[in-house]
Amino acid sequence: MPSLRTRTRLALLVQREVGRLTAVLWIPALGFMLRFGLRYRIQNAAELRTRYRALVRESDGPVLICANHLTMIDSALVAWALGGSWWWVFNYRRMPWNLPEYTNFASHWFNRVLAWIAKCLPIVRGGKRSEVSGVLKCIQHLLSKGETALIFAEGGRSRTGRIQLDSIADGVGRIMSSVRGCQALCVYLRGDRQESWSTIPVRGDSFYVDFELFKPNSEHSGLRRSRDFARQVVQQLATMEERYFSRSGVTA
Amino acid sequence: MTKDEILERVIEIVRPYAKDDDAMEVISLETNILQDLKVNSARLVDVILAFEDEFDIEVEDEDADAVDTVGDAVELIHGKVG
């Protein structure tokens, strides 16, 4: 795995610690906004969080959270669903780093500050590989140090509202193939009123969330291995999506 | 294999992924694959995997980072096929 420059490592450390010092303000505020401002509800939240905390306790290797992608606030919803609010405040190191799209979240200085505090490393989707690579190396470094990151397995918000097997974020495979022992925590999140992609879910929506630890395998090496890993993660999410749609009373 | 031979085959590999036909007509070593040919960034990996198959080489993620232009691709392939 390529090593990071000392300056970059220091910058990540400062970013995390400033986020930690202010976590008592911004994490509960975010949770409050999701729960009471937007009236969102996570189905079986208590059971889900118990499962997640047990998984975190028992996990002995790096974990990359790989989620499906339908709205612009999916990463906040996934974090809220898995950890609630206060658990993240007291377990801040486990709070996942995020890779938001630069033009959506960091093109204005104020958003950039908020994103910085909230463990975000903005990335230009579709940007030059060498620039994207710099951000991915940060995530590889953080995972190897026992931190967690969240990345969307698809190349963007699904335009069909379903997992798109032909839209693969190669960064997922690249990270997983370069971080020794890295496992994917595949998370499928969907509001029951979410018919397709959108900016944010409908106010008052209720979210189904499921997750599974998944370790891809590949007989290939190099770029092909990374692609293979990314493809398997997306396939796993598609399987979880089928489970969602096969529940009684839910239609595609 | 000469660089000119590699270039010819690279152009044929890139062609189905390019969304800008006009840029394809004037393609050169300086042509940027993403910006000029409008190849989708996710598809760039498919392009490089096609290079692997065509030239029987193996490309690492880090090698692929250096591929911005057609010329970069030719250099990468030339360095691997010898």
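Chain B has a mean pLDDT of 92.
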